[in-house]
Design a protein that fits this description.
- The complex is a heterodimer of chains A (about 220) and B (about 270).
- Chain A is an all-alpha fold and about 220 residues long.
- Chain A is built from eight helices and no strands.
- Chain A has a single domain (about 5-215), classed as Orthogonal Bundle (MetI-like fold).
- Helix content of chain B is about 40%, strand content about 25%.
- The relative contact order of chain B is 0.18.
- Classes of the chains: A mainly alpha (about 220), B alpha/beta (about 270).
Chain lengths: ~220, ~270
């Protein structure tokens, strides 16, 4: 078959279906990753002893557990405990656990970069601890964490392909199926690579715009 | 700055297009076959690609060594023909690319001779005929006809003739593509069946019998594909192809062949 005809008629339609699934996986996982990551980071820095221990254990476990293994446990393992998850749900859960563990580290680093004096000053102005964290620390820390969070988001784009191992037909999976059926490995993986490259490029440009948009005049990012 | 990035992207794209161009040309297959193999043309050792979760044909023992019908067959042939073989586990859907990329020298692991595969690699003479089995959970009310009508979520291994059979249902419009779930190896598909994540599996009969042993799963029928296993070898590697054909002749004429088949419960239909 003509190579261009193959790419246009067979490969691209299959990849389009896969791309939509990949985007759904990312859209479902990333927001929770950041939210839970922020919670864990705050818990580790400001929480009570038990909260600190829990947060540390959470990060240690999900950072230490290979994502593929985590997905296998969620999909193949949990049914023996009576919990049967769909492949999509299992993937999203796995991504959230992994993503939030890493995100929490970026956010924790950013929180620690805010001078302690600001916390004391907040309290001196009559704010509660929660108010200081919410209104003084986090708005600054989250801005400083943007480069790290974007980094993790880019990883998420790429490791979302692991969902294929538990039967979710996302971008890589859709391509692999076509490649195996038509023995067109080089063409297929090349096109898939270009799609991931464009996803990452769009993300990088988007992150750059976001960083500029949320920049606070006078607040140098990451420096004192 | 932005112009620089654009330039870089264009360069990258150009590189990719160039690469894509290179893959389009496949060398004309060497069709000249020599009937008599010169022993000295054979290499001292060959690497055999296998699926390591493919009972009874090739699988890994608890101590890490490989065993199975095809493993023992290949060792017997290698011993007779005077070369060494080394077995290497390869993901099934990457088997033929691995062969073409010379990571392995042959696939001797219950590989069905399919037209699509023959367009890519050469096959030895067939050495075993099998069918595809349909398996469901013991408590399932699904019938064989239900499965063939596309009324179930079906699990199988990626890149197998079992997948090709299910794909036929999809191509015929009987079953939505999303009802096909493919796994890295067949035991995982059985695990998903037991977990109720798929309703049925379609896979080689001898391996299905092995995989469901001790599981709450039953075979409800066979798809008579009458497919045949062969050894896959690179098209240009005619020396090895002739050698393995000769090896199969020797093996199948030897009493050891029936012994092996009995040992692994492979009574041909």
């Amino acid at each position: 078959m003509d190579q261009l005809a193959f790419i246009a008629d067979i490969l691209l339609p299959a990849l389009w279906g896969g791309l939509l699934v990949t985007l759904q996986l990312i859209a479902a996982a990333a927001p929770f990753g950041v939210l839970i990551g922020a919670g864990i980071a705050v818990g580790r820095v400001y929480g009570s002893r038990p909260v600190q221990y829990f947060s540390r254990a959470y990060v240690a476990f999900f950072k230490g557990c290979p994502l593929l293994l985590l997905l296998f446990i969620l999909y193949f393992g949990l049914p023996s405990a009576g919990i049967s998850l769909s492949p999509f749900t299992a993937s999203v859960l796995g991504f959230i656990f992994c993503n939030s563990a890493y995100d929490s580290e970026y956010i924790r680093g950013a929180i620690k970069s805010i001078r302690e004096g600001q916390f004391t000053a907040g309290l001196a102005l009559g704010m509660t601890r929660g108010q200081v964290i919410r209104n003084v620390i986090l708005p600054q820390a989250l801005r400083r964490a943007i480069p790290g969070l974007v980094n993790e988001f880019v990883y998420l784009i790429k490791y979302s392909s692991l969902a294929y191992m538990i039967t979710v037909i996302e971008l890589t999976g859709a391509g692999k199926m076509v490649a195996t059926r038509y023995f067109t490995y080089n063409e297929t993986f090349l096109v898939i690579g270009l799609v991931y490259l464009s996803l990452v490029t769009v993300t990088t440009i988007g992150a750059h715009l976001l960083e500029r948009r949320v920049a606070v005049p006078g607040m140098a990012s990451g420096r004192h | 700055m932005q112009r620089k990035i654009l330039g870089l992207l264009v360069l990258l794209l150009a590189g990719c297009v160039l690469l894509a161009g290179c893959t389009g040309t496949t060398p004309a297959p060497n069709t000249t076959t020599t009937s008599s193999v010169n022993q000295s043309d054979l290499k001292d050792s060959y690497i055999i690609g296998i699926d390591n979760a493919y009972k009874p044909f090739s699988y890994q023992e608890k101590d890490g060594s490989f065993n199975g019908f095809d493993i023992e067959s290949s060792k017997w042939i290698a011993n007779k023909l005077g070369f060494k073989v080394e077995h290497q586990a390869v993901a099934w859907d990457g088997m033929i690319p691995a062969l073409q990329a010379k990571k392995i020298d042959m696939v001797y692991s219950g590989m069905t001779i399919l037209e699509e595969r023959k367009a890519q690699v050469a096959f030895s003479k067939p050495y075993l005929k099998i069918n595809q089995s349909v398996a469901v959970r013991d408590d399932s009310t699904l019938t064989f006809d239900d499965i063939m009508a596309g009324k179930a979520v079906i699990g199988t291994q990626r890149g197998t003739s079992g997948e090709a059979e299910v794909q036929k249902l999809i191509d015929a419009g009987k079953m939505p593509a999303s009802n096909l779930k493919t796994f890295d190896n067949f035991p995982l598909a059985i695990q998903a069946l037991v977990n109720k994540q798929v309703d049925a599996t379609v896979y080689d009969k001898p391996s299905t019998i092995e995989a469901i042993a001790g599981q709450p799963v039953k075979i409800i029928g066979d798809i008579d594909t009458n497919e045949q296993y062969g050894i896959a070898i690179r098209k240009e590697d005619t020396v090895l192809l002739d050698a393995m054909n000769r090896g199969l002749d020797l093996l199948m004429a030897d009493p050891y062949w029936d012994e092996l088949k009995a040992k692994y419960n492979l009574t041909e239909t």
